[in-house]
Amino acid sequence: MSPLVLHFPESNTESYARAHLAHPMDLHSFTTCMHLRTHPGGVHTVLSYSSQGNDNELMITMGYEVGLWIGNEFVNLPHNFHSRDWVSYCVTWSSHSGGAELWINGVVGEEQYLRRGYTVSPAGFFILGKDQDGFLGISDTDAFVGQITDVNVWDYVLNSAEIREQMSCDTTSPRGNVFSWGVTPLSLYGGVQLETDYRCH
């Protein structure tokens, strides 16, 4: 995967990365995968997508549980894995069943359910590292502190083999067709640092 790393050294309102998506977020299902190293403690907003109708059209937070918001509805994806090292996370959701799954380092947790029959709205704002209050209103509540790399979003649910492939350091691993790490342009704000010292293992 890409050696590009975003480092969020501290919690402040100004620190976030905005994505300029070429593919609309008109999603009946999705998979989001990423590698994270988070600062210990608290809740960290990794990904936030707001539409004109919903502040939390799609949002993923990391803490003692992983939080998933879809269309302003929330579900916890519980887990017992905690590490200060790099961790591979994937979250999947399907509108058909409403089922959401959390994968950590290739191991899947218990399926949870929300927003059956829903479609994630297009024409919103997609950012990394911050919660959005209002349409691109940035909040420092639950701000991400740590490092992020290899974020990818697909408009379908990856199968188990494809999800496990995202754990690898292979630069040929498939990238997302909605958000593609190292391809989708990002604008960095408020002291987010660009690093290239990611040591995958």
Descriptive account of the structure:
GO terms for molecular function: metal ion binding. The structure is a single chain. The protein starts with a strand and ends in a 6-residue tail after the last strand. Strands 1, 3, 8, 9, 10, 11, 15 and 17 form an eight-stranded antiparallel sheet that branches. A seven-stranded antiparallel sheet has the order 7-6-5-4-12-2-16, with no helix packed on it. A two-stranded antiparallel ribbon has the order 13-14. The longest helix has 6 residues, at 160-165. It has a single domain (4-196), classed as Jelly Rolls (Sandwich), CATH 2.60.120. By secondary structure, it is mainly β. It is built from one helix and 17 strands.
Write the layout of secondary structure elements.
Blueprint: E1 5-8, E2 16-19, E3 29-38, E4 44-50, E5 58-62, E6 65-70, E7 73-78, E8 87-94, E9 99-104, E10 107-108, E11 112-113, E12 125-128, E13 131-132, E14 138-139, E15 146-154, H1 160-165, E16 186-189, E17 193-195
Antiparallel strand pairs: 1-15, 1-17, 2-12, 2-16, 3-8, 3-15, 4-5, 4-12, 5-6, 6-7, 8-9, 9-10, 9-11, 13-14
Give a quick precis of the structure.
By secondary structure, this protein is mainly beta.
Shape: globular
The third-level CATH topology is Jelly Rolls
What is the C-alpha radius of gyration, as a whole number of Å?
15 Å
Helicity level: under 10%
Number of strands: 17
The chain-level structural class is mainly beta
> What is the helix tally?
1
Number of domains: 1
CATH architecture: Sandwich
Order of helices and strands: EEEEEEEEEEEEEEEHEE
Question: What is the C-level CATH assignment?
Answer: Mainly Beta
Strand content: 35-45%
The main sheet comes to: 8 strands, antiparallel
How far is the N terminus from the C terminus? 12 Å
Low-confidence stretches: none
Mean pLDDT across residues:
88
InterPro entries: ConA-like_dom_sf, Neuronal_Pentraxin_Related, PTX_dom
Family: Belongs to the pentraxin family.
Subunit structure: Homopentamer. Pentaxin (or pentraxin) have a discoid arrangement of 5 non-covalently bound subunits.
Keywords: Calcium, Disulfide bond, Glycoprotein, Metal-binding
